[in-house]
Amino acid sequence: MSARILVIEDNQANLELMVYLLQQQGGHEVFTATDGIEGLAAAEKEQPALILCDVRMPNMDGYEFVRCSKADLALKHIPVVAVTASVMADEQQKIEQAGFDGYFTKPIDPESFVHATEQFLSVSTGD
C-alpha cells in the first residue's frame, strides 16, 4: 500500500534517512518540510495520508504544528506522529496531550521504521 507521507524535520541527516526508508522500503510518495510553517503549507497543498513531525524545530515547533493542523478542518483527519529524541515520561505525556497520534524516538530504527509507520497508515485508512 503506497501512501503520501509528509516528513517535517530540520535535521538534514534524519530527514534524508526517513525519506529514503519510506521511499525505498515502503514505496511511499514522500514530501518534506524543515519547520512547522513549511509543514503546514505542504500539508494543505499535498493532503498527505500521514505526517511525521519533529518536535523541536525552528520557526514553529512540532507542538504548535500539531495544534494548528488539528484545528484546521482540511487537515484534522490526518494522523500526526511526533519524532523526538526525548523519551522521558513527561515528554511522552506532553506529546499525547498536544494531540499527536503517536511518536517515534530518535534515532529511528531503520529495521522497524517503515512497518511502524505503516501501522499509522492502516489506522487512518481503516485497513
UniProtKB/TrEMBL annotation:
PANTHER family documented for this protein: RESPONSE REGULATORY DOMAIN-CONTAINING PROTEIN (PTHR44591:SF3), STRESS RESPONSE REGULATOR PROTEIN 1 (PTHR44591)
Lineage: superkingdom: Bacteria
UniProt keyword annotations, A-Z: Phosphoprotein
Q: What is this protein called?
A: Response regulator
Report the InterPro entries cross-referenced here. Bact_response_regulator, CheY-like_superfamily, Sig_transdc_resp-reg_receiver
UniProt cross-references to Pfam families, sorted A to Z: Response_reg (PF00072)
Q: Where is the Response regulatory domain?
A: 4-121
List residues modified as 4-aspartylphosphate.
54
Q: Which SMART domains match?
A: REC
